[in-house]
Amino acid sequence: MGPVECVVLAFPGERLKVSAVTAVADLRRAGQVRLIDSLVVVKSVTGEVSTSELVEYEEFDEATAEIGPEANLLGPEDAAEAAETLEPGSCALMLLVEHVWAARAAEAIREAGGRISGTARIPPDHVEQALDAHREAMAALAGRG
């Protein structure tokens, strides 16, 4: 099995957009991830938190048709933790995914006695800043030659 991760995708408004769910379904269909579980968390404008299963939304039927049964591993505690990151009047899609693309490497690492001893998620704005700095440095080098 590849690495498993819980990802919380936050969105403005109290309804998920079909395009976001379709993008996740596309990753699953392409064999990049296996969706183990999902949960929709909504934080109303008054701060009330509610949860539902992704498959409960009819507008996502086409996107979720091939997902199959989920394990129901995400629960109320997980939803409460995700809700803490949400602004009132917004929602989140919680995904428990296996990174299928890394399964073979994970197996080889385990067979060699290795293990993951830590991970860090790099915020997208930090990645953009690093890419901008790299582009500037490359442009400066090109200007010298």
What does this structure look like?
There is one protein chain. The chain has 145 residues and is of the alpha+beta class. The protein has 5 helices and 4 strands; from the N terminus they run βαββααβαα. The chain has a 4-stranded antiparallel beta sheet with strand order 1-4-2-3, with helices on one face. The chain is globular. 17% of the residues are buried.
Quick tags:
145 residues; alpha+beta; 4-stranded antiparallel sheet; 5 helices; 4 strands; globular
Topology:
Elements: E1 4-12, H1 18-29, E2 34-43, E3 49-52, H2 61-64, H3 76-83, E4 90-98, H4 103-111, H5 124-144
Antiparallel strand pairs: 1-4, 2-3, 2-4
Beta-strand segment tally:
4
Estimated share of beta-strand residues:
15-25%
Global structural class: alpha+beta
CA-atom Rg in angstroms: 19 Å
Shape call:
globular
Strand order of the largest sheet: 1-4-2-3
Helical amount:
25-40%
Mean pLDDT across every amino acid position: 87
Number of helices: 5
Distance between the termini: 49 Å
Largest sheet: 4 strands, antiparallel
Low-confidence stretches: none
Short description:
The protein has 5 helices and 4 strands, in the order βαββααβαα. By secondary structure, the chain is of the alpha+beta class. The longest helix has 21 residues.
